[in-house]
Each structure stands twice: as C-alpha cells, then as structure tokens.
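Q: What would this complex look like in 3D?
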Amino acid sequence: MDKKRVLITGAAGFLGSHLCDRFMKEGFYVIGMDNLITGNLKNIEHLFADKNFEFHHHDVSNFVHVSGELDYILHFASPASPIDYLKIPIQTLKVGSLGTHNLLGLAKAKKARMLIASTSEVYGDPMVHPQTESYYGNVNPIGPRGVYDEAKRFQEAMTMAYHTYHGVETRIVRIFNTYGPRMRLNDGRVLPAFIGQALRGEDLTVFGDGSQTRSFCYVDDLIDGIYRLLFSDYAYPVNIGNPDEITIGEFAEEIIKLTGTDQKVIYEPLPKDDPMQRRPDITKAQEILGWEPKVNRAEGLKITYDYFKTLTEEELFTKEHNTFDGYIKK
Ligand code: UDP
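A: Here is my prediction, written as structure tokens for the whole assembly.
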C-alpha cells in the first residue's frame, strides 16, 4: 500500500535493469523509464507482470512527467560505451545535460531524493593513480570521449547546483568499469567484445599493446554500493568500483582460459584518448558506506560467461542490437 516510489531512468539497460530488480526485491514501487536506444526490454520483461512495476517508453532529454508521488530518482539513462558515443554523440551529450536538468526539476517538484550515475570518465586519462574523488581529472573536451565525459562533468555540476541552491537531496556515484549479465554483446566494451569473439571462434582484439589497465567490478557489488549511497546522507561524489587492477593483455588471457577457446590475441591500434591506467580509491565508500566489493573476478566472470552462453546463435552473430539507425533517421 504505502510503498516508496522510485523512478529509474535507463531501466532497460545493463545497470538500470539490475537496479530495478534490487528495488523490486526491497519492496519499492518501481517506475522504469527508457527510450530503448541502447536498452533492451528483454532485460526487464520479467518485471512487467508485477503490479509494483510500470514502464514508460520516454527520452528523458525531453520534459519528463510522472504522475503521483516520487520518493527517489536514479538517473542511469545514457549510452555508456565509446563506440556508442561515436555513433550518437549529440544524444549522449543531451541525456547527461538536458536529461539531468529535467530530472532535477522533477526531483525538486516532487521533493524526491535524486542519485546520478557519474563515472570514472570524469578523471579522463588520469595523472593520479589510483583515482580519489578529490582528483579533478584530465579530460579532453573535444576528443571522441568528450561528449560523454563532459556531459557527466556537467551533470555533476548541475546536480551540486540543485543541491546547493534549491536544497534538493542529491547523491553522486562515480562508477568504474562494471561487468555482468545483460551487458550488450556488441556495445564495444572489452568484456563482451572478448567473450563474443571467443564464442564466435574469432581472435581476441587487444587495442594497443595491452599494457593499459582497468579494474573490473561485478554488477551485484556495484548495485549494492549504489543502494547504500542512496540511503546515506553523503551528497558528494563517491567512487564505487573494484580496485583489483589488471592489464587488458592479462585480461584477454583470462578470457581465453575461461572460455577454453583456441583462438589467439591480435593487436589493433589503441583508440584516441584511451585511458592508460584506471583504479578506484574506495576509501570513501569503505568509510562512509561500509562498502567494499565481495565478488572476485574469477567468480564474476564465470557468471557472466554463463549468461553470454545463453544467447541465441542469431544474437551472437548479429552485429547490432540497438535501435540507433531508426533513431538517427527520426
Ligand atoms: N579494448 C580492447 N579490445 C576490445 C575492446 C576494448 O583492447 O575489443 C580495450 C580498450 O582500448 C580499453 C579497455 O579495453 O583500453 C577497456 O575498454 P572499454 O571500452 O571496455 O572501457 P573504457 O575504455 O571505457 O574503460
């Protein structure tokens, strides 16, 4: 009856759909919103029969209306991989900026608490390692990643302004590389790329010499950190990620072992502005939220591989799984 009501944008995406599951499990009434450009209804179709879930097919870069009360808003709508930014750069900028503005306006009107999905990309190609929240970053505003990085930086600024000047309750999570079931096979990110290649019997493409590093967090750990942050009273940015750092070359070897593929690694040019090192300093999350990751990479990769193995042949061999083309023509 008196369920708390939460709006989750990007609900049909990788992280958004896992958030929907968590909030449903915790007994909330969940309103999912997505324009389905990179999201997929398959990720949330199991929720449609539940009376505590509703779905709105809407682009939050346009005015957002939700009837009734709202207690919480989690803004997770955005393309989130470098190849997406290249294909839909303007939409990427708009959802981080205009979309955030619309949702902050909604939060203000409804007196809701709002949490935004920021990113380790605000640190750019970092000159400080590991990255602490106090580091201002090294972002190229006009590079290929600039549309995402700057939208997210603007998003943080806009969110702090609503917090400071309008008294809106806000939370900011800076998300580091995360993986798990429901990642889009062809979103270009390294884990689905490698696993997809292994399953198709193709060689694994390492960009550059493979010495660049990332630190991969399993999705359940990330969702738990976000959940704790929302219900904390801390309004400043908090890194959530797994500090277990690995080179991309070593990561490719791990995937080869996991999948048992007899394919080899091939090397391709490193994309422009690809960060050379990334690892979160999670001291704040540990101290403020009592959070740290629990799932190690071996366990997390196994679960994720099992998920990708359930994809159909058609899904595995279809190169595109999104609706960019239709959207761009509109
Ligand atoms: N990468 C790679 N091969 C691929 C896809 C990505 O070597 O097929 C590299 C990429 O250049 C980057 C790292 O893997 O250094 C992580 O890339 P991803 O796109 O997953 O995330 P991000 O760069 O945003 O952290």
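A: To summarize the key features: The chain has one domain: 5-329. Residues 81-82, 177, 188-190, 193, 205-207, 212, 214, 248, 270-271, 274 surround uridine-5'-diphosphate (CB under 6 Å).
Q: Very helpful, thank you.
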